[in-house]
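Q: What would this chain look like folded?
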Amino acid sequence: MDVTPMRLSGVVPSVRLGELRTDMHSAAKEIETQLTDWGFMSVEVPGIGARVEAMMNSFEAACASADPSLADFEYTAVPQLSNGGTHGFFPYLSEIPRLAKGVPDPKEFIHVSGAMLADQPAGAGAVLAAFPEFGERAAEVFDTAFTLISLFGEVIRGMMPEGTPEFGLSRDATNLRVIHYRDLDGREVLAHEHSGIQFLGLQLPPSDQGLQYILHDGTWVEPVIAKSDVVLCNIGRMLSSASRGRFRPSTHRVHCTYTETDYERLSSVLFAYPPHKAPQWQISDEGLTVLDETWGDFIANRFRGLGNE
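A: My prediction, written as structure tokens:
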């Protein structure tokens, strides 16, 4: 599939790891223009690529380990917060997206939530203790990514009507997903086109190309971010709802053209949510409406009927 490469390194604003808040505020107007023109946002963070690569490689090593085994920490067996995101290990072929027609994605992945990092509830962080190298690297990437996505949120809030509430993104409910694609069996489509449920998503540099986005004009592009320091920020359906459609969800997919039979792909993304028990809200130029439903209800409604469409 021919998709136009979109080069971003040296084009998008540069944001220093030690000056995230200062540099993100300085780049606010450029980021606003990106969101208006493209439908997603991007900055370059020198040094983040090496941190992300080390974390993904340590997860790949954990996937290959038999003792301890990640299977012992499958998400269905890990203590969960009722007001938080689902964390733990998702085994190979365990996720079947809506558009996949019953065919699971060829991947295994882990969700590292803020709750897991805080070992809430007790025992949630056991997998990080069992795989200490991965745990240490995941905690470092989570902290940086959560700061970045919160700052992207501040920029977006500045584009919304007066009276827009603070986004109040929750560390506990936010998940860092680290993905290991493998045993593709000739498949080109690794993830069908989709948009995220969350408020905001932060795509970190993957090990290979293949991540593609659709622009506002309907053109598919492939941002060149593999093994770089470029990150992308997505609008999720929660924020699209809260803004009454002012911002559309960022639609993306993952395709792969490869020749090696043992091809593997590593990627990671941070999904940021408000507290699940917080009430939903919507704002327009006419004012703010606070709904009876919670953001947890929003998630439940989006998953209801999954697999039946």
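The chain has a mean pLDDT of 92.
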